UniProtKB/TrEMBL annotation:
<dbReference type="InterPro" id="IPR029057">
    <property type="entry name" value="PRTase-like"/>
</dbReference>
<dbReference type="Pfam" id="PF00156">
    <property type="entry name" value="Pribosyltran"/>
</dbReference>
<protein>
    <recommendedName>
        <fullName>Phosphoribosyltransferase domain-containing protein</fullName>
    </recommendedName>
</protein>
<dbReference type="InterPro" id="IPR000836">
    <property type="entry name" value="PRTase_dom"/>
</dbReference>
<feature type="domain" description="Phosphoribosyltransferase">
    <location>
        <begin position="13"/>
        <end position="170"/>
    </location>
</feature>
Length: 227
C-alpha cells in the first residue's frame, strides 16, 4: 500500500489498528502511554483504552523553516530540550540567529501548553516506567527525536515508539535509541503524515483536554458502592 491510499479513516482508526501490535504491554502496571499533542492524543487515546494503560501527554513542537512551513528543521520539547538539524539549516541558508529566535518562540509555546494540559493534574512520572511514545505519524522524526531526548532525562525503564506510519529514515535513526519501534506502515519518503488519513482534521486543545480527562477518569480507581 503506497502513500495516498489512505489506509486510516481517521486517527482513532489508526490507534485501533496500531494497538494489537502493542499487545505485549497490555494491562501492565509499569507502563505509561505518552502521546504527542495534538493529533497523537487521538491515536493514543484508543491505544490506551484497548491496552488498559494510563494516558498522558509529552509536549514537543516542530521548528519549521521560515521559507517553507512544511519543512522541519528541528524541534523543542518539555524539559528545555532542543534538537536542530544543523546540516539542513545550512543547506537552506537559515542562520543560527534565526534558528535561535524560532526555537525560543516554540519553547514559549511548549511552556504555554504545559499550563494548559497539566493545569488540572501533575506531569506524569516516568522514572523506572516503560513509556509508549505515540504520535499520528513520523516523517522527519524531529518531534519524536526531541520527545525521546526529553524522556531519557527522566531515566525510564524503557522507551517504545509507536506510530501508525513512519519513514525509513526516521525509523533507522530512532530505533537505535529505543527498546522497540512499532508501526503499521513504513515508507520512504513520507512527505506528509496527513496523506495517510481520509480524515486528518485539525485537533483543538479543548479536544485534547477532554480526552485526557476521560482517560484520567477511566484509569482512576472507582470508589466501592454502598451496599
Amino acid at each position: 500500500m503506497g502513500e495516498g491510499d489512505m489506509p486510516f479513516r481517521d486517527r482513532a482508526d489508526a490507534g485501533r489498528q496500531l494497538a494489537p501490535r502493542l499487545a505485549a504491554y497490555a494491562g501492565r502496571e509499569d507502563v505509561t502511554l505518552l502521546s504527542l499533542p495534538r493529533g497523537g492524543v487521538l491515536v493514543g487515546f484508543e491505544i490506551a483504552k484497548l491496552l488498559r494503560v494510563p494516558l498522558d501527554v509529552l509536549i514537543a513542537r516542530r521548528i519549521v523553516a521560515p521559507v517553507n512551513h512544511r519543512m522541519t528543521i528541528g524541534a523543542v520539547a518539555s524539559g528545555g530540550v532542543r534538537v536542530v538539524d544543523e546540516e539542513l539549516c545550512r543547506a537552506l541558508g537559515v542562520s543560527d540567529k534565526t534558528v535561535q529566535w524560532l526555537a525560543d518562540a516554540e519553547a514559549r509555546e511548549v511552556e504555554r501548553l504545559e499550563r494548559v494540559y497539566y493545569g488540572c493534574h501533575r506531569a506524569p512520572g516516568i522514572r523506572d516506567r516503560t513509556l509508549l511514545l505515540v504520535d499520528d505519524g513520523v516523517a522527519t522524526g524531529a518531534s519524536m527525536r526531541a520527545a525521546v531526548t526529553a524522556v531519557e532525562q527522566g531515566r525510564p525503564a524503557g522507551i517504545v515508539i509507536a506510530v501508525p506510519v513512519a519513514s525509513y529514515a526516521a525509523y533507522a535513526e530512532l530505533s537505535r535509541r529505543v527498546r522497540e519501534f512499532v508501526y503499521c506502515y513504513i515508507r520512504d519518503p513520507v512527505y506528509s503524515v496527513g496523506l495517510w488519513y481520509e480524515d486528518y482534521a485539525p485537533v483543538s486543545e479543548q479536544e485534547v483536554c477532554r480526552l485526557l480527562g476521560e482517560a484520567l477518569d477511566r484509569s482512576s480507581p472507582r470508589a466501592p458502592q454502598a451496599p
